[in-house]
Design goal:
Blueprint: H1 3-22, H2 24-29, H3 40-47, H4 58-68, H5 71-84, H6 92-105, H7 115-128, H8 136-153, H9 155-160, H10 165-182, H11 191-195, E1 213-220, H12 228-233, E2 237-244, E3 247-254, H13 257-265, E4 269-277, H14 284-290, E5 297-301, H15 308-313, E6 316-319, E7 322-325, E8 328-331, H16 337-345, E9 350-353, H17 357-370, E10 374-379, H18 386-397, E11 403-410, H19 412-426, H20 432-445, E12 447-451, H21 456-460, H22 466-474, E13 478-484, E14 487-494, H23 497-509, E15 518-524, H24 528-542, E16 547-552, H25 555-561, E17 566-572, H26 573-576
């Protein structure tokens, strides 16, 4: 494979990942196999995030993939892409065959009605046609048929009336991959129309209960065990084993994670261990019913301090920025806050990056394909170019007026408060116009005060001069800032945590009369315990009837403001109404 073709593959891989992220929420909604825990899209986003770094070096991405696998679908996809990404030196068809083989061999009990079906179809197709003669529409039709077939191959999918979410995820990836690779970029039938009712879970479908944990671990073995997959599979369910340069990645479902860890230790050194309880989530039909009164769906930026689960519970579509930490690049909403601040304290270079303009525009398009009306509550235009980009896009592509864009003038917690209260207002059956008016009022009424702990992170990010940063830390000065329509305003300076809390209490004091209608967001970085044990009780004494949520500070804000920072944001929903 020559250099030009390799570069085409790299660009195609990035395009494929961007398209996959756009449909991740849909993948989660139809995720019923092997467990209906609604995380296939999330797991694929995390697992394949290293594809974004292909331009920096394919081998770097392959190495990162070995450690990034998450969930059943994510680990199987990693096995495939570890081989498929090695573009240099061989044709695409050969790489696909190697990836397919590794994916099949990584699973203890492989099933045809999964993403494996897409890999099989892809390999057959690439065998039949010369690489230079590939036709995008032919590829799309074949892969579509392969995805459709999954609904009849697994009983769980047949009962739910949907295609396999992992298979659909790979379709979305290769749909964009081959448009870019072939250069045949044309208007095509949207995904929602392409698969129709097979993207809606049957109302009668009830996912079975489970008391298992999902375990992710890396196993470092001193000897090569040809029967390792068989040995691991005997210890739990849904076993996936993916060999890598720094050890073997193991994915398992088990009822007894501690016992499993002890047994895995007999096979090698266990590192990078995690276990999470698996609870079947609401099915796609239940989620749809919860928001059936909505005449408009809310979209916002993950740069607001609203965790993914809270966004989903309120029907909010989140658009991610990316956190770049050392050799990691992950969507903001899927990056661990705990891990982020450990890295920052250790001196690891951490920064943020916007999603590409292409990815953001794909999100806009996907939103209006799924929902009749969408209200995009943007991070303030003083902080990003999201508002202008979205407005420019609507002029060309939103011919039916489905996509409304609002510059909130907000970031972090104030943006979250605006989005949450607007989403709740939308569930009351208000018209699209009424919801937009409500959000616009909130944008001017919501307040936020951010308490900086150390100035050195603002200095490192170029947001404060080194001289001011040095003397600020030397004098133990802790600025209080307020993000607004005009950018960041300095509201005052205090000397310690107690003074910060006093400042917050004085600001919320004037809202005591609105306590019953007040939503308060307390946002933490690495200081959750202090906010939980000290700040929240004090705020609750001032506004005992208010709804108080404790959430992580937006990681975009956290990267620039640093560990020890915290924030309070609040608004009265009664005033906006």
């Amino acid at each position: 494979m020559n250099t030009v073709t390799s570069q085409k593959c790299i660009a195609a891989a990035i395009a494929g990942y961007e398209n996959l992220t756009v449909w991740a929420d849909l993948l989660d909604r139809i995720n019923v196999f092997p467990v209906a825990d609604g995380d296939t899209g999330m797991n694929l986003r995390v697992s394949l995030a290293p594809l974004l770094d292909c331009a920096e070096g394919v081998e770097v991405s392959v190495t990162q993939l070995a450690a990034s696998g998450r969930g059943n679908s994510g680990n199987i996809a990693v096995a495939f892409f570890q081989e498929f990404l090695r573009f240099t030196g061989s044709e695409l068809a050969e790489r696909a065959k190697q990836g397919r083989k590794k994916a099949w061999n990584s699973i203890a009990n492989p099933c045809k009605g999964t993403m494996l079906a897409v890999f099989d179809t892809l390999c057959s197709l690439l065998d039949e046609v010369e690489e230079s003669e590939l036709e995008f529409l032919v590829i799309r039709k074949r892969l579509q048929k392969s995805v459709f077939s999954t609904e009849q191959q697994l009983p769980e999918l047949t009962d739910a009336g949907v295609v396999d979410s992992g298979a659909l995820g790979m379709f979305c990836f290769f749909d964009a991959f081959f448009q870019e690779f072939t250069g045949q970029k044309i208007d095509v039938t949207p995904v929602m129309e392409l698969f129709g009712d097979s993207l809606c879970v049957n109302v009668s479908f009830q996912p079975p209960a489970t008391d298992e944990y999902c375990v992710e671990a890396r196993l470092v073995t001193k000897v090569q065990d040809v029967n390792l997959l068989e040995s691991v599979a005997s210890l739990g369910n849904s076993a996936v084993v993916v060999p890598g340069d720094s050890g073997v990645k193991v994915h398992l479902h088990t009822r007894t994670p501690e016992q499993l860890r002890d047994k895995l230790a007999l096979l090698g050194d266990v590192v990078d261990w995690s276990d999470e309880v698996m609870n079947p989530v609401k099915t796609g039909s239940e989620i749809t019913n919860n928001f059936q009164k909505n005449q408009i769906r809310i979209m916002s930026d993950a740069a607001g301090s609203i965790p993914l689960e809270l966004a989903r519970a309120n029907g909010i579509i989140l658009l991610d920025s990316y956190i770049l930490a050392g050799n990691q690049a992950k969507p903001e909403s899927l990056f661990s806050p705990e891990q982020l601040y450990v890295l920052m304290k250790s001196g690891t270079h951490v920064t943020t990056a916007q999603a590409s303009s292409h990815e953001r525009k794909l999100h806009y398009q996907a939103a209006i394909q799924q929902y009749e009306n969408v209200l995009y509550l943007c991070t303030g235009s003083a902080f990003t170019g999201n508002f202008l980009m979205a407005m420019d896009w609507t002029k060309v592509h939103d011919t039916d007026g489905q996509f409304t864009v609002l510059d909130t003038g907000a970031a972090s917690g104030r943006l979250a408060v605006i989005a949450l209260l607007t989403a709740r207002f939308a569930t009351e059956g208000a018209s699209a116009e009424e919801v937009a008016v409500y959000a616009r009022k909130l944008s001017h009424q919501a307040e936020e005060y951010v308490f900086i702990h150390e100035l050195k992170y603002l200095v490192a990010g170029g947001r404060l001069s080194k001289v001011k940063g040095f003397f600020g830390d030397l004098l133990n000065m802790k600025p209080v800032i307020c993000p607004g329509f005009g950018g960041v305003q300095k509201m005052g300076v205090v000397r310690n945590n107690e003074a910060q809390l006093d400042f917050a209490c004085r600001k919320i004091e004037c809202h005591i009369g609105d306590g019953a209608a007040l939503l308060v967001l307390l946002q933490y970085t690495d200081n959750k315990e202090w906010l939980l044990k000290t700040v929240e009780p004090q705020i609750r004494r001032w506004v005992p009837r208010a709804e108080i949520l404790l959430v992580p500070l937006s990681l975009t804000s956290g990267v620039h403001m640093g560990p020890g920072t915290w924030s309070i944001a609040f608004a009265s929903c009664r005033e906006a109404a």
